[in-house]
């Protein structure tokens, strides 16, 4: 089979390919579109950063994403908006059942959020600014022109701090990411990935490319006969007679996650009876890595902290099954290890031959990966400072951002089934030790336990784990390809004019 051509990097927003690690300053602006024609005029010329490789790293970057409400405000036809996925159109906070599945109840409930919680007032546009140290204010001034101020109303300004890749609880972050198969080296054939692989089809990140099922995600396709402006969009790969509004774009999920850093370390200290070594051990077991990022199971080679899976630790004696990274990425293949021949595959497909009670409860990971692009906010508190009785309770946490082609199958599945799920991998009565809201289920089943199996005897259990992370805002956005963004801008300017 011939390899597909390289993607058009000039049409892809840089954030999909680069985390902007060399740009430590960042500011996220959540905007309402108050004047569509002016918004369109600003968007037509906005210096959006593309994924094209530059020989000299950029000093600044700009990325833009839009919510379903924002697409409406930009005058995109309703029929085209309906071509996007249902969860994007409905939004993160508008459906009570979705909120329950995501764990957004009680203190996490959308009515308490600082932004995004009121379905009638979801910000239309998300503008992400990045800059080298000391350059952010000037970059913002350059972007926030008088036209910008006439076009938009700022709903929220999310500031960030340069935490040097340490998240607020004190752990190295941003270590494990899927390797995106930009060059189409791997087929999406269902039987070539029996074991865990970190390489992921481009169609799991960008719309308009084949995903891990060998299929294309749902997205709006246009006919140039009905809309001559659509000619500026790329052609759809599987239907070249149609233009693709989704191609080279990604969904962007954003959640503002407040972290109770003092509560986290003080609880662990109490569990460890003040013993610093036990405290660190418990913290690392909750995350699944030591604070410096070393995984709790051996990686091979040891110099690469991302080359491991959990098959040699089926009962979670080294890395508890419920640890954050094991829930967020169980590193499973399509079949458990040792299942290679046709016969043993069939045995597994029909549900026989389970070796561990959790085997069949964890789906193959390659269908549920996320590309994380979050940034930290708030004044940092070291674990030592957090242990002091007078540790400050300032707003601090993570502006969690992830990119994907299917919000439901990727972000929502990981958040709901794996992170919040109280029956993950055979463990009961638990949810993610970092993220869980600790609320009992409808049948009163608790979710506030955390078990650490030991080689010597029964699992050591913690009960009454407090809530350490609280949701303070969130939304579903679409980060379009750059040509699609210019098309949206053009819709806003031309249609708004034609109305007057
Ligand atoms: C305040 C909240 C959070 C904190 C403090 C946190 C912390 C961490 C840390 C320390 C790691 C290990 C470092 C790494 O591999 O990069 C990690 C990994 C990860 N987290 Fe989180 N995280 C948070 C929220 C979330 C959420 C909401 C999700 C998704 C629903 C998520 C998904 C992941 C994934 C997919 C990984 C990589 C797992 C792997 O591939 O090994 N995290 N997180």
Automatic annotation (TrEMBL):
Q: Which UniProt keywords apply?
A: Iron, Metal-binding, Oxidoreductase, Peroxidase
Q: Where is this region: Disordered?
A: 221-244, 272-318, 435-457
| Molecular-function GO term, any one | peroxidase activity
Return the InterPro entries for the record.
Answer: Dimeric_a/b-barrel, Dyp_peroxidase
List the biased-composition ranges (Polar residues). 272-281, 440-457
Quote the cellular component terms of the Gene Ontology held in the record: cytosol
Cofactor names from the entry are:
heme b
Q: PROSITE patterns this protein is in?
A: DYP_PEROXIDASE
Instruction: Tell me where the signal peptide lies.
Output: none
> SUPFAM superfamilies, from UniProt?
Dimeric alpha+beta barrel
Return the protein name.
Peroxidase
Give the species. Sedimenticola thiotaurini
């Amino acid at each position: 089979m011939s390899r597909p051509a390289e993607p058009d990097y000039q049409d892809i927003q840089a954030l999909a390919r680069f985390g902007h690690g060399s740009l430590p300053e960042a500011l996220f602006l959540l905007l309402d579109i108050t004047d569509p024609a002016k918004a369109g005029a600003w968007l037509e010329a906005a210096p959006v950063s593309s994924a094209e490789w530059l020989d000299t790293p950029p000093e600044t970057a700009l990325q833009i994403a839009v919510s379903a409400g924002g697409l409406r405000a930009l005058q995109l036809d309703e029929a085209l908006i309906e071509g996007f996925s249902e969860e994007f159109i409905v939004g993160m906070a508008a459906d009570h059942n979705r909120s329950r599945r995501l764990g957004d109840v009680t203190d996490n409930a959308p009515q308490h959020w600082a932004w995004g919680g009121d379905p009638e007032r979801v910000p239309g546009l998300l503008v992400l600014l990045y800059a080298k140290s000391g350059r952010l204010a000037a970059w913002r001034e350059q972007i926030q022109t008088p036209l910008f101020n006439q076009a938009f109303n700022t709903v929220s300004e999310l500031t960030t701090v340069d935490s040097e890749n340490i998240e607020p609880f004190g752990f190295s972050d941003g270590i494990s990411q899927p390797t995106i198969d930009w060059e189409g080296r791997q087929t999406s054939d269902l039987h070539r990935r029996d074991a865990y692989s970190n390489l992921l089809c481009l169609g799991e990140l960008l719309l308009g490319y084949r995903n891990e099922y060998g299929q294309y995600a749902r997205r709006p396709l246009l006919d140039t006969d009905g809309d001559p402006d659509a000619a500026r969009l790329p052609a759809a790969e599987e239907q070249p007679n149609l233009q693709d509004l989704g191609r080279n774009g990604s969904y962007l999920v954003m959640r503002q996650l407040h972290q109770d850093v003092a509560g986290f370390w003080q609880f662990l200290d109490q569990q460890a009876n003040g013993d610093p070594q036990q405290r660190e051990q418990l913290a690392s077991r909750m995350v699944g890595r030591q604070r410096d990022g070393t995984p709790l199971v051996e990686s091979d080679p040891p110099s690469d902290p991302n080359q491991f899976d959990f098959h040699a630790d089926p009962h979670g004696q080294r890395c508890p099954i419920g640890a954050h990274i094991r829930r967020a990425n169980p590193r499973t293949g399509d079949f458990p290890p040792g299942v290679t021949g046709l016969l043993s595959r069939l045995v597994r497909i029909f549900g026989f031959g389970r070796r561990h009670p959790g085997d069949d409860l964890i789906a193959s990971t390659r269908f549920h990966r996320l590309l994380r692009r979050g940034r930290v906010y708030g004044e940092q508190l070291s674990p030592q400072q957090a242990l002091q009785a007078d540790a400050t309770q300032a707003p601090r946490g993570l502006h969690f951002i992830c990119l994907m082609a299917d919000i439901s199958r990727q972000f929502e599945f990981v958040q709901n089934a794996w992170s919040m799920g109280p029956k993950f991998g055979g463990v009961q009565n638990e949810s993610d030790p970092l993220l869980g809201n600790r609320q009992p289920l409808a049948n009163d089943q608790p979710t506030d336990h955390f078990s650490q199996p030991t080689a010597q005897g029964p699992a050591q259990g913690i009960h009454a784990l407090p809530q350490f992370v609280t949701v303070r805002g969130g939304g579903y956005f679409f980060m379009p390809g750059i040509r699609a963004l210019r098309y949206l801008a053009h819709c806003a300017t031309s249609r708004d004019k034609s109305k007057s």
